[in-house]
Design a protein that fits this description.
Blueprint: H1 2-38, E1 53-56, E2 76-84, E3 89-97, H2 101-114, E4 124-126, E5 130-137, E6 140-148, E7 155-163
Antiparallel strand pairs: 1-2, 2-3, 3-7, 4-5, 5-6, 6-7
Length: 164
Amino acid sequence: MKEILTNKKKLIAILIGAMTLTAIVICSAFYVYSFSKTAPREQVMFSQQEEPALTDFGTTTPSDFPADIPLEKGAKIEQSFSFNSETQKQSTIVFLSSKTVKENYAFYTDFFQKQGLTIPTTNTYESAGISAFYVTRDATDISITVSQVPTTTLSQVSISVLKK
């Protein structure tokens, strides 16, 4: 019972972190978009270089997404975007996979471990319906969340790469 509660706490922490990061990206993009539409250019307090930029790539891979992170061959990309500021750059891709949650989780943890990276157990959550982990490589945080798509045999894979 204690192990189940610990796993649920890990999942909640990972999901809260992922949702917080997503909310920050969306709010920042909305703020920049609405501010640029309502304020005359001469009243903008930030230089063009300081403004965060959100680029929506729709159903194609972001141009700045790391080429060495494998995606399932023939995977249907549902969404992708890139968020850039002066100090950070985030690229996210979400795709449907014909593999199960367990198969995708095993594939990506194995991929990063083969690169010599250790994935601390505090950075992981694994269950039948949703699994997630994050790993740090150089100055880059990589977060992977895999969830079961209800009433299908598909899973949804979300990969976010944050370069600091």
